[in-house]
Amino acid sequence: MGIKAKLKLIGLLPLLVAIVFGVTIYRGQDRFSALSDLALKTDAMREALRDVRDVSRRILVTRDNAIRPEGYDALEIVNRGMMDLAVWRDEPGLGEIIHGLERHLLMARIHYEMLDGLTVPMLKWIAVPQITEVEQALMAELDALDTRLRALHQTARAALVEHSERLWRREFWLLTLTAVLVLWLTHPILDRIGTALHTLTQGTRRIGPNGLPKELDLTGEDEFGQLARDFNTMVRRLAESEAARAERSRDLETAVQDLENFSYSVSHDLRAPLRAIDGFIGILREDYAATLDAEGLRLFGVVSANAQKMERLIDDILALSRAGRLAMEWVTVDMNRMVDEVWSDLLETASGRPIQFQRADLPNCQGDPRAIRQIWQNLLANALKFTRDRDPARIRVSARAETGCIRYSVEDNGAGFDPAYSAKLFGLFQRLHGMDEFEGTGVGLAIVKRFVQKHHGQVEAGGAVNGGAVFAFSLPIGPESFTAAANVEDG
After folding, report:
1. pLDDT at residue 380 tops 70
2. Which of 98, 367, 383, 435 has minimal CB crowding within 10 Å?
3. What is the pTM assigned to this prediction?
């Protein structure tokens, strides 16, 4: 049986006891009321006897017919009381008293009637010897009745007190027994709950060598046992999932490493024949230029240009491969100095065209200086390339602090792009302009994204066709972020 079912049964026990308690009180209240009525009835009967005694004495003195019915009325009250007391004849301790009351009441009525007959007004001045004897006998019977009624009253009061005490003792023991029974039933449940909660609390905090929680050592057929079994099943599934994930991660790392090694090797192997082709084309052009017509010279130029383009593509692929293989070195990077150095190097290739360059004060960051330099190199080179048809070209470098990071941006007034395709810009070999418009291989921004992601940052781009472009990257702030990133790289 589960704990929930046991608790429901224990909860029903007080309800059952409350019903028994109510029934017992109800039945006990009937006897309590009857004994109280008995005591009150004896008081009323004794009061009526006092009236009979008073009336009898006044009859002897006055012999007044007007007061004689009062005595009969008082005796009738006592008689009706005796009729009510008849239900107690079988009660132990009361039956004998009631039987004696009936006998003395009968004699008292007889003596009162005799006294009434001997004291009529016409005999007022006649000495009747029996009057004194009858009066004395009447008073003796009235005294006997009063004595027995007083005894009955005391007995009723004593029975009332005894019944009340017995009733409350019964209820007390009933409540005590219920409390003991509830404690006896709930103790193992509470002990089970306490032990289970302790086991669950401590067990869920234990971490195994694989970083997963350990299985719980908690048995039983109740809810806690089922919870422990479900938890252990979950732990085993997590372990299986973690093992599968680790295996897939190893396979993925191996595949990526093989792919990088392949691209690196292929790129190195392709550079030599491409350079040979370009060199031989140059030799042939010099040696046989006089014998070639314009179409032949053009074809030699096409072959040479494509060889050089292929070599640039291979160089970019090698750069991307090195970006993935680069072991990060985390230091403080002076962004102002780095941007100035990169821009100074790029100006040498700008061929003297008008350029307005602005650099705001840039906050320093934590990162790898080689990777950060490559990011600025690619973004500023793109800005120079896509503003070559602008007079003047305007390029602005700025930064602003955001929640948990610093956002660096490069803004230009160049050719721009359709913002609907901004998501494709950072993909490998993705280009939004034709080769006849702007040279490039579509690898530079992919390298930017790779290096920013290695710093646990984000890249974004915005712009409009012929409305310029803004390329931005965000780097996290705080030593905690860089420490975590460094740990990931080391791992």
Report:
1. yes
2. 435
3. 0.44
